[in-house]
């Protein structure tokens, strides 16, 4: 079975890394990430985040300057895709190359055009289980909504500390005590377990980094992160495992992240 899911940053699912350990500070300084080897004249042409808010034509170049010049080894490219054209073609290519079943691809394509879903997605990774843990780089797609709704710190947090975590998990697989989740066994997990596992890991990383960098001052954004974390924990808790491996993965994740769930939610969690 060649499963696919969309791992996103958004209203509900609004990490790392040695490459961007100071990412919030760097992003807030408008392009300090990629200045080291650039000339003074090049620096004068750097695009500010604020300039992209009202000018869509600047957004891919901004992404290129800030991120694509200095990508971690597990990300192939960061792509601005406001009308979902590139991500659709990427999914269709996965099917053509035999890396994703057509039925699963159809469900992802339907999710892209769903009014309810698309309105929640700001950034996304496409997860093809055949590529999970085989050291394959993955692109990250950014929607129009990300530039419109995020301030600069939120944008950088969502991309570097959330979506890049997804990309690293896709590249390396996920090591748990009960086993290494990769292409050899990930199809034993339901899409709900895969999505919850990936989002819990990314959100926990993002929340931790947000606090360390003093981002807790952006209280509403942190509330969104916390709400997303609780949502995926409760989703995982409701899953009825179909096999022993899924039982073990689900149990380990629930135990690992239980300490981060407020006690008032325990009444909603299965015993």
- Kindly report the spatial arrangement of strands forming the biggest sheet: 1-3-4-2
* Discrete helix count: 12
Number of domains: 1
Strand residue content = 5-15%
Query: Which residue ranges are poorly predicted, with pLDDT under 50 across at least 5 consecutive positions?
Result: 11-26, 28-41
Described by strand count, sense and barrel closure, the largest sheet is:
4 strands, mixed
| Spatial gap, N to C terminus | 32 Å
> Helix-strand pattern, N to C?
EHHHHEHHHEEHHEEHHH
Number of strands: 6
Q: Quick one: overall form?
A: globular
Helix content: 40-55%
Q: What Rg, in angstroms, do the CA atoms define?
A: 18 Å
Structural class by SSE content: alpha+beta
Q: How confident is the prediction overall: mean pLDDT?
A: 83
Describe it for me?
The chain has 271 residues and is an alpha+beta fold. It has one domain (4-268). The protein is 51% helix and 12% strand. The protein contains twelve helices and six strands. Strands 1-3-4-2 form a four-stranded mixed β-sheet, sandwiched between helices. The protein has a two-stranded antiparallel sheet with strand order 5-6. A hairpin with a 2-residue loop joins strand 5 and strand 6 (179-181). It is globular, with a radius of gyration of 18 Å. Mean pLDDT is 83; it is low at 11-26 and 28-41.
């Amino acid at each position: 079975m060649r499963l696919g899911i969309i791992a996103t940053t958004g209203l509900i699912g609004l990490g790392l890394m040695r490459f961007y350990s100071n990412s919030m500070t760097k992003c807030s300084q408008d392009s300090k990430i990629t200045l080291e080897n650039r000339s003074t004249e090049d620096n004068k042409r750097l695009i500010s985040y604020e300039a992209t808010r009202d000018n869509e034509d600047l957004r891919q170049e901004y992404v290129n300057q800030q991120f694509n010049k200095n990508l971690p080894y597990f990300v192939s490219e960061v792509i601005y895709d406001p009308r979902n054209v590139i991500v659709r073609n990427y999914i269709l290519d996965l099917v053509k190359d035999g890396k994703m079943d057509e039925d699963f691809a159809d469900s992802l394509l339907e999710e892209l055009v769903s009014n309810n879903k698309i309105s929640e997605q700001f950034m996304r990774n496409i997860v093809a289980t055949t590529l999970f843990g085989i050291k394959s780089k993955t692109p990250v797609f950014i929607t129009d909504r990300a530039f419109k709704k995020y301030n600069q710190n939120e944008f950088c947090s969502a991309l570097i500390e959330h979506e890049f975590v997804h990309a690293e998990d896709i590249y390396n697989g996920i090591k748990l005590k009960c086993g290494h989740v990769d292409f050899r066994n990930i199809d034993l997990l339901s899409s709900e377990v895969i999505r919850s596992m990936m989002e819990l890991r990314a959100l926990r990383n993002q929340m931790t980094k947000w606090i360390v960098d003093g981002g807790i001052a952006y209280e509403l954004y942190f509330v969104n992160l916390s709400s997303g974390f609780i949502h995926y924990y409760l989703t995982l808790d409701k899953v009825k495992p179909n096999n022993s491996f899924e039982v073990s993965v689900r149990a380990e994740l629930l135990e690992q992240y239980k300490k981060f769930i407020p006690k008032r939610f325990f009444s909603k969690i299965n015993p």
